Amino acid sequence: MNYEDLITKEIIWLDDQNLYDEDMEVLVKVVQESEVLEGLLLCSNHITLADGAFTSALAQNRTLRTLNLYNNKIGCQGAKCLAAALQVNSSLQQLHLGGNHIGDKGAHFLADALVVNKGLSKIWLNRNRIGDNGAHRLANALACNYAPRQITLEENHISCDMKRTIKSIHTFMAKRKRETRSNEIVIARKDKEIRRKDEELASKSEELTSKTEQIASLEAAIKLLKQQQQSKTRKSEDRVVACVDTPELIIEKAEDANKRRRKLEARRPKSYLNEKAKVNLPRIA
């Protein structure tokens, strides 16, 4: 195996390659460091996972979605190491462990991991020598963790009653999955409606702000017009007052007119005055 070739792959096929745990060093590094790996197929090899190297890398991986370990040599100890990784890993969705002689004890380890793990949706455990004890533990794990998932337990040593129990749990989980999906759709619609109303509210708020600014502008303009009108009214009143003569001013103007007349008469010749006297013109008081 070449690290440079594997690190860039999204899916790695290494089925039936006669691989042992000691041959996994490069692959362990790839699983630990890859940012694109989504599928790893290791069917029909001699892998046990007992040394914990691969499972430690799996615990750190955040991209792997499918892991196929069908027909290997995992056994109880390998299942224990794998279960520890599953309690930490959250990206893995499908796990194939058929034909690995895990047994009831190995099923117990995996059941404990399934109580915690919420990412796995499908687990194949067919042909693993699992009896009612292990199947019951797995059924309890399904009942405890409401994450929707499916476990395949074909070709094990499970009684008909236990199969019916597991089937009923699967039916319940499928129903819950449908309900969850339905609720998600309703929530998505509600979220969409809320976002739409928020947008409408934001638009109306902007419109209200704009209208408030317009009203403030109009009020300022009206205030300015009133001030200008008041100023014009005061000036007009001042002009009217200035044009109207008071009684004192009328008397003063009449006296000034008499003075000017007397001065004018004093300058004219006596013959003009005699003629004027004959006419008997009225005098101004």
Describe this structure in a few short sentences:
The chain is of the alpha/beta class and 285 residues long. It is built from 9 helices and 6 strands.
The rounded Rg comes to: 53 Å
Give a quick account of the main beta sheet: strands, pairing sense, barrel closure.
6 strands, parallel
Average pLDDT for all residues = 86
Low-confidence stretches: none
What series of H and E elements makes up the topology?
HEHEHEHEHEHEHHH
Main β-sheet, spatial strand arrangement: 1-2-3-4-5-6
Residue share in helix: 55-70%
Q: How many DSSP E strands? A: 6
Structural class: alpha/beta
- The separation of the N and C termini measures 140 Å
Number of helices: 9
Shape: rod-shaped
- Give the amount of beta strand, in percent: 5-15%
What does this structure look like?
It is a single chain. It is built from 9 helices and 6 strands. α3 packs parallel to α4 and α6 packs parallel to α7. Helix content is 61%, strand content 6%. The protein has 285 residues and is of the alpha/beta class.
Question: How is the secondary structure organized here?
Answer:
Elements: H1 3-6, E1 11-13, H2 25-33, E2 39-41, H3 53-60, E3 66-68, H4 75-86, E4 94-96, H5 103-116, E5 122-124, H6 132-144, E6 150-152, H7 160-243, H8 247-267, H9 270-279
Parallel strand pairs: 1-2, 2-3, 3-4, 4-5, 5-6
Helix pairs in contact: 2-3, 3-4, 4-5, 5-6, 6-7
